[in-house]
Amino acid sequence: MNFPYFLANRIAFSGKRTFSKLIVRVTIGAIALAIAAIIISIAVLRGFKGEIISKQRSFFADVLVLRYDLNKSYENSPISLAPEVRKSILAIPQVNSISSFATKAGIINVNNEVEGVVLKGIDSLYNQQPFQRMLVEGNMIDFKSDNADNQILVSKYLADRLLLKVGDDFIMYFVQDPIRKRKFVIKGIFNTGSEELDKVYVIGSLNVIRKLSNLDDHEVGGYEIRIKDFSQLERTTNKVEDLLPIDMQAINIKDQVPDIFQWLELLDMNTKIIFILMTVVAIINMISALLITILERTSMIGILKALGYHNAGIRRVFMYSALYLIGLGLLIGNLIGLGFYFFQDFTHFFKLDEKTYYISYVAVQLQWSDVILVNLAVVFIGMISLFIPSMLITKISPIKAISFK
User: Fold this and answer.
1) Using CA atoms in the order 280, 284, 287, 289, what is the torsion angle rounded to 10 degrees?
2) What does the pLDDT look like over 137-158, one tens digit per residue?
3) What is the Cα–Cα distance from 277 to 279, expressed in whole angstroms?
4) Can you say whether residue 167 is alpha, beta or left, with left for phi > 0 and alpha for psi between -120 and 50 degrees?
């Protein structure tokens, strides 16, 4: 029989506590609070970063192929990928798809309002599914329709500002020599949550830009490449770059919008700080509970020593007892943390200011590996931290301990 385990079990569940009762409850509460706070912070950070990155990837894709020049305008210099180069890019394991696009600056004139925008042109082969998730009203562009070139998607920001709705039409002027104008009908309204994107971009047909800029059927403004694993972004970008001709370049999304990704990287520090602070609080409470429990059981320690039981075995008794407290605290903390995760994931109860945070609710995302690793880390750090205080048992004299009142 494992005597230290048996004795720890009796102390934890059958033994009577006096002044240590309160500190034990505080310790369990501190451990529960620590694990719940860590799980919630990881879930919120993962969810927040995942939503922001997903929206940026939906609009810009992962890697852009553009002409290598000094052109900084919204209208990209025309390029054309040779079929064999395109095939080689698609052969890269991480590449999921490659789509053509072009951009052209224009001015919307409607309802006595004037707004400068950028028309992003796409074609029938373009994967519109990412845009579908951002659509709040109407439908995506139907390239099988006869009037596909006249269909356009506008942001909710522009629709509200210009008093537009699905089915309305307007004239867009394109600044070139001579000035050209086109009539568009609103097919759908999207919302990225990023005002920087919503107030600038509208989505239309690539064929319109080809006609306005006198491009050939095979010429485009650039190519968008979507990859399977975002963690392989840098490596995939370099592989694409190696396949391109000398007059083209590959730019990944982190280089396109560096401010957003730098901001997201700073958020990782918050989770680390929360983990450290919560773990320190839990450890301090665990050490206090262990010391008080040892003090409360001084007479029992003296009797065990008098009967010849060794110090290592007595230490294991109290380490097992501490493990009970940690386990109960982890159970309660996990229930709280995972309860919040599932509640928020299904209800989106807690909201955010979309203008500030790019999303309208607190997004959560959690992997079971995160929960398991956090629990194991807390148990390991806790038990290591309690080993030194448990050495106090070796300093207890059997004679003095038995007479301890």
Assistant:
1) -130
2) 999 999 988 889 999 999 999 9
3) 5
4) left
Looking at the predicted structure, is the pLDDT value of residue 273 above 90?
A: no
Residue 243 has pLDDT above 90, yes or no: yes
247-264 confidence digits (pLDDT tens): 899 999 998 888 888 888
pLDDT at 133: 82
The residue with tokens 């004037």 is 114
State the chain's mean pLDDT as an integer. Answer: 85
Q: What is the 3-state secondary structure (H, E, C) of the chain?
A: CCHHHHHHHHHHHCCCCCCHHHHHHHHHHHHHHHHHHHHHHHHHHHHHHHHHHHHHHHHHCCEEEEECCCCCCCCCCCECCCHHHHHHHHCCCCEEEEEEEEEEEEEEEECCEEEEEEEEEECCCCCCHHHHHHEEEECCCCCCCCCHHHEEEEEHHHHHHHCCCCCCEEEEEECCCCCEEEEEEEEEEECCCCHHHHCCEEEEEHHHHHHHHCCCCCCECEEEEEECCHHHHHHHHHHHHHHCCCCEEEEEHHHHCHHHHHHHHHHHHHHHHHHHHHHHHHHHHHHHHHHHHHHHCHHHHHHHHHCCCCHHHHHHHHHHHHHHHHHHHHHHHHHHHHHHHHHHHHHCCCECCHHHHCCCECCCCCCHHHHHHHHHHHHHHHHHHHHHHHHHHHHCCHHHHHCCC
Under the banding of pLDDT at 50, 70 and 90, the label for residue 336 is very high
Q: What pLDDT sits at residue 1? A: 53
